[in-house]
Design brief:
The structure is a single chain. A 6-stranded parallel sheet has the order 8-7-6-10-9-11, sandwiched between helices. A 5-stranded mixed sheet has the order 1-2-5-3-4. It folds into 2 domains: 76 residues, 2-Layer Sandwich (60s Ribosomal Protein L30, Chain: A), CATH 3.30.1330.30; 161 residues, 3-Layer(aba) Sandwich (Alpha/beta knot). The N terminus is likely disordered. The protein contains 9 helices and 11 strands. The protein is elongated. Helix 1 runs parallel beside helix 2 and helix 5 runs parallel beside helix 9. By secondary structure, it is α/β, with parallel strands linked by helices.
């Protein structure tokens, strides 16, 4: 995980090179998401009489997947058997691409795992546990509460347990929402929901096609961008009393280079033990708690 500072290097590096002015910004609405909410055609309650669901929350089989796509429910990913382009699978893939759903070709063995051994007919869809929000809606939540926005951005966090724990930390800190990318991210699966200890039900989560574009739009709306990485300002010395979005990366790769460069500040957690990293949710708990404390002691 990236949000550490083993050597306590208080460099105060800034990526975005903006001059901070103490104001909350206007939070103008912008086109942050490609598709904030897919409207239902009235079929979202029942997908199909022969729909099959794996314990992981996967929707299995061609008929069930086709009905899922027709229902308008949010779908995180569509897994199809590599090289299989016969019959109804072409229609399913075309509909998924039309809706902007990532289509991933995998070996049959991977589909066997995803389906829990059920007869998958070469296709498994991962449906979201709840509807996604838009970034505009996240900003509106902060405005409706009369609070300075506090937003979490998850970059490349693909482990569902880590994602669930991050959502839990964000909700406990009073964050107004989480932004995740369409690709290279755990979606709102049952595992994520369980790992969040129910926090996902109280957290607005936006899924965007491009995190860098979302960051640019947030900056235009008056939000300051912090990246949790090594070599930055200790978290307790950072100013979180302004509208803030904090980026947390995966434990393996950390926050991507482009997002670091677009950030206004790098924030770190000094470590004094022999282990040089924290789990992403642990790091988020530390930094978000400080951000929440400052937001509630504004002067």
């Amino acid at each position: 995980m990236a949000s550490i500072n083993k050597n306590d290097n208080n460099s105060g590096k800034s990526g975005g090179k903006r001059t901070k002015e103490r104001n909350t910004g206007s939070f103008n609405k912008r086109n942050f998401n490609e598709n904030p909410r897919n409207s239902s055609s009235g079929r979202e309650d029942i997908l199909s009489s022969d729909a099959v669901y794996a314990s992981s929350g996967a929707v299995i089989g061609r008929n069930a997947t086709a009905e899922l796509l027709k229902s308008g429910r949010s779908v995180d990913k569509l897994f199809v058997r590599r090289g299989d382009r016969e019959g109804s699978i072409n229609v399913i893939i075309a509909e998924a691409l039309k809706r902007g759903i990532p289509v991933i070709e995998v070996d049959n063995s991977r589909l066997d795992v995803l389906s829990g051994g059920a007869h998958h007919q070469g296709v498994v869809a991962m449906a979201a546990e709840k509807e996604y929000s838009s970034v505009d809606e996240i900003l509106e939540i902060a405005k409706s509460r009369g609070e300075v926005p506090l937003i979490v951005i998850a970059d490349g966090i693909e482990d569902p347990h880590n994602m669930g724990a991050l959502i839990r930390c964000a909700e406990c800190a009073g964050a107004h929402g989480i932004i995740i990318p369409k690709r290279r991210s755990a979606g709102l699966s049952p595992v994520v929901t369980k790992s969040s200890a129910g926090a996902v039900e109280h957290m607005a989560i936006a899924k965007v096609p491009n995190l860098a574009s979302a960051v640019d739009s947030l900056k235009e709306a008056g939000v300051w961008i912090y990246t949790a990485e090594t070599g930055g300002t200790p978290y307790y010395e950072c100013d979180f009393k302004v509208p803030s979005a904090i980026i947390f990366g995966s434990e393996g790769e950390g926050v991507g280079r482009l997002l670091r460069e677009k950030s206004d500040f790098i924030v770190s957690i000094p470590l004094y033990g022999k282990v040089n990293s924290l789990n992403v949710s642990c790091a988020a708990a530390v930094i978000l708690s400080e951000a929440a404390r400052q937001a509630r002691t504004r002067v």
